[in-house]
Amino acid sequence: MLGIPDAGIWLAYLLCIASTILCVVYGIINWNKGEDTNEVSVQKDIEWENKEKEIDSKL
Amino acid sequence: MLLKIIITIVYLAIVAFLGVIGYKNTKNTKDFLLGGRNIHPAIMALSYGATFISTSAIVGFGGTAGVFGFSLLWLTFLNIFLGVFIAFTVFGKRTRKMGHNIQAHTFPEFMGKRYESKLVQKFSGGMIFIFMPVYTAAVMIGASKFLETGFNMDYNVALLVFAAIVAAYVFFGGIKGVMYSDAFQGTIMLVGMTILLVTVYSKLGGVTEAHTKLTDLMKNAAVMEQTAGLAKGGFTGWTSMPEFFSKYWWIVVSSITLGVGIGVLAQPQLAVRFMTVKSDKELNRAIPIGGIFILLMTGVAFLVGSMSNIFFFEKTGKIAVAASGGTDGIIPNFLDSFMPEWFVAIFLIVLLAAGMSTISSQLHTVGTAVSRDLFNTEKMEEKKSMLISRLGVLVAIVMTIVLAYVLPTVWDGAIAISTGLFFGLCGASFLPMYVGALYFPKLSKTAALSGMFSGFGASLLWMMFFHSKESVVLKACQAIFGKPTLAPEGTMIQFVDPIVIALTLSILVTVIVGLATKSKYEQKHIDECFEGIGK
Question: Which residue of chain A comes nearest to B284, CA vs CA?
Fold first, then answer.
């Protein structure tokens, strides 16, 4: 297959493409899922981000 | 030559500009408070990809594919499936949420706070500080090898030039707010590798034709003669797997595929990337970009590395590794000899981009490991804490330069070996504890510590006394036992990568100690860690 005689190799070749397709399909299906609007967690995110900036500024 | 210099300078100017813009943006607290953090999923994915893939993957592992062939595609498969899909869905979402819940900013801090253990934090921080330079050196060697060939300069001079670029980058704030410049570098890499793939396949007459030519190459008497040494180790051709359980099978499967493929799941500099987005939605959207990115990076590098044998043999009568003077020289020499000059100039910045984006994250990880994990600079005055983290980064840069100077003299294929070493060490030491942190609320601190120490200890011992690739160089086995490895002669044990032994052991130890000990966390702590996650 594909000019590759060894099944162990063309399987890897196809799995590379298949796993990329899996990533694309998963992304499309879940494109709008997972938004976090909970106020407490948004506040925690903001707290985290501010601290991150402070840490960065010391590097 | 002039073209290469001009393109490189333009590139460096853009990166510097983006670095400044990115950093200014991250400083703008008002914007953030009004609109919420808003790193675009494409920026996050490209930044993750550019951090993940470096000159090490393209030059080092691409060159290794020039020797071992398409069998390295198993690593690409793991890079996409484990390194992107599983990493984002199984690890990323929980890491993001828990990281924000417990306000962790580094991987060691995440572990330390989750397991309520300063020892976990300090030990992981120390490990990163000591061993990260080995991986950073691998990236630096890759970029320097390409500068060496691209500008016809001595390797040591190329190393100093690249080190000077990195030092300037760090000095002018290049490791702060790296998301935008990383994403820019990722885009350059994406374009460059796509052009490379299309060019190589079309020059060889198409996909199937190219593969057939590579398969047929092994039928040539001269090639068979040149690969006779490799064949003794189990090499059977560039389009077939090495003989089952042979020396090269163990190297390809255990060191390259498993060592790097699994190790990526517990990479400190990648784990923190998950925390930079505001919700799972951004992670979901980043997955497709990440998957395509990795396919086009390692997939192309490994295909081109393998197929370079056809080009080299037709022109010089020698296979790639022989014509290039070693594994790490294959990709740079291939591009320089068979691609148009304009493309080599573009590719030069692809590799600089790949190197810089990874090195900046590595140094960022070292800097924060020193300032937050090894020394708690939180309560120190600002100047002192800044001095400590900057000194940490400086020491890491010096260690990296020394290693990048020494390692190519002790190992052929130093890039892939050094990368595998760091990935393997992280995988064996951190992975069981990381899974436990995210999925097993009651896993005790003792179990986490035992798993980490056993994984780390077993890795080091296996490298020093059994895995001949390292034990021969480290010489501890020779000094103590009078022989380079304790592995019985005539067996394949000396080729079994440390990750196989050490990760198995650390998983077993974590599970057994976890079952035998009781956790002492207060319910409040567990609730805080797992808030919004579900146990």
Answer: A27
